[in-house]
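ugh ok fine here u go
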Amino acid sequence: MLSHSGHAAERRVPDNFLLTTNTHLGTPGERWAPHTHAEHMLIWSDRGSINVHTADRHWVLPPGLGLWIPAGQRHEVLASTQSQYCCTYFAPEGCEITWPEPVTIGVSRALHELLLHLAATGMEPEKRLRAQRVGIDLIHAVGIPNLAVPRPSDPRILPLSTAILANPADDRSLDEWALELNLSVRTLARAFSEDINMTFSQWRLLVRVRAAIALLSLGEPVGLVGRRVGYHTVSAFGAAFRRVTGHSPGGYFRDGRPAMTPVLSDPR
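structure:
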């Protein structure tokens, strides 16, 4: 299903207000085609996970984490069938946040409840504006290690990257891929290094951990998640997951929300 084509001229925030929130249920095959918005958008998951693509990055957003997308930033969204997610739009002229690029945001319980309350509850205009200002004050960037996975653009490695993004458990080595793509191992390795500034092994690790976070957010058992993303033992999966996130798979979600740290210098 192709939906939410989005047009840059379309405005969602009512006149004289600062923000508005829409809630969506993930449906089979749901995908927002690449598009832009005239307003800033914070996309965040209430249940399950969602994937957001820009030209050169790919984020996975479990509950408790959102992505700030500046007005005019082209992006694409894919939602899982078990997800419930929200899009909060902000009028640029009434918002002091000026991040020029997408930024990961911690969706605290206070922000979560306030945005949903504003979406579901009628109130006098002045009260709504005061509450909306509080909501904007609660938005802060957070550090999530390596959550954004680079998207290779070199045509020599696109077949490889497309296959692994579709199936992170694909365990073919760089030697096997070189043979399949009729390239030398050295050429393939150099293409990765020059295109995304990391090795094939580093990139595949990020893809696997990102996929694991999406499955863990749904409450899947750690052992099963590890096997689904390409690890034969729980210990191997745990070691790989910890190298990227600094946390064990079982300890990554605290009270249903991912471990994260505030960005000390909030880049507003």
